[in-house]
Amino acid sequence: MANQPLVFDYQAAQGKPENIRHPEGYCPFCDVEHLTNILAQDDDRIWLVNKFRTLEDTFQTVVIESSDHLGGPSTYSVEQNRQVFEFAFKCWHQMIVSNKYQSTIMYKNYGPLSGGSLRHPHFQIVGLDNYDVYQNIDISNFTGVEVIHDECCEITLSTQPIIGFVEINIAIDEVGHIDDLADAVQVIVKYLLNDYMGGRLSSYNLFFYEMANKFYCKIVPRYATSPYFVGYKIAQVQNEGRLEKIAADISERLSANQ
Length: 258
Ligand SMILES: [Zn+2]
Prior knowledge:
The structure is a single chain. The protein is an alpha+beta fold. The chain folds into two domains: 1-136, 2-Layer Sandwich (HIT family, subunit A); 138-258, HIT-like (HIT family, subunit A), CATH 3.30.428. It has helices at residues 10-13, 78-97, 178-196, 227-232, 240-257; strands at 38-42, 45-49, 58-64, 103-110, 122-128, 144-149, 154-158, 168-172, 203-211, 214-222. Strands 1-2-3-5-4-9-10-8-7-6 form a ten-stranded antiparallel beta sheet. A hairpin with a 2-residue loop joins strand 1 (38-42) and strand 2 (45-49). Helix 2 (78-97) crosses helix 3 (178-196) and helix 3 packs across helix 5 (240-257). Residues 27, 29-30, 69, 120 line the site of zinc ion (ZN).
C-alpha cells in the first residue's frame, strides 16, 4: 500500500504562534514563565507538550534546546551540544518505551526551508497512534558512500536517499555513543551551513530513527523541494564523483575535530 497521509487539523493550526497577533518579535519559547504542560527540564532545556497540535491521532511534543533564541548545534559549545542531544534522546526514549504509540519520531527543523515556523532552536518528538513510519523507509535509505566507520559510529552518504540530493547518515549501535553522534552532527551541520555551498545553504533537517538495533540520525540539507519528488516521488542523488568529494570533505573535518 502507498504511503498514507497524516491528517492536518486546520482548526488547531489557526492558534499557532505565527498565525496569531503577537507583539513584534514575540517568541513563546523565550517566554519561559508562560510555558505550560512541561514534561521534563534540565537546566535551560525544556520538554513540553506542543500547545498547537496540528495533526490528528498524534501526541506532539517539543524539546526547547536552549534559552538562546538564536542557538543551534552549529553554534553551541561541544559540551552544550552533547547535553542537548543527551536530553532529547532521553525524552524520545521515554516516549518510545511508554508503548503508547505505534511509532515515536524525533526530528529537528533549522532554517526557512526546513518546514519549521519558529526560529528558537527546538526538536520535535511526536507519537503517532496508528502509523508505522518504518513502513515507508528501508535500511537501503541509510547506506551508501562511506565517510567513516569506527567502533563508535558509522557515517555514510545515501546512494538511495529518501528525497535527495545529499543525505548524511550517522549510525550508533547503542545510546552510550550519543556524544559521538552529537559531535558528528555538529561538525557536519557547520560544514553544510558554512562551506558546503559557499555559505548559501540556509536550512537543514535532522531525523532520528531506531531500527536494525541501531540509532540513526539523517541530516538533510534543504532546498525548495524538487518537482520530480513532489510530482512523481522520484528522489535525486549526486553522482558518484560528487558524493566521494563530499565524503572526503566531511571526513577531513571530522578528523580535524578529534
Ligand atoms: Zn525565542
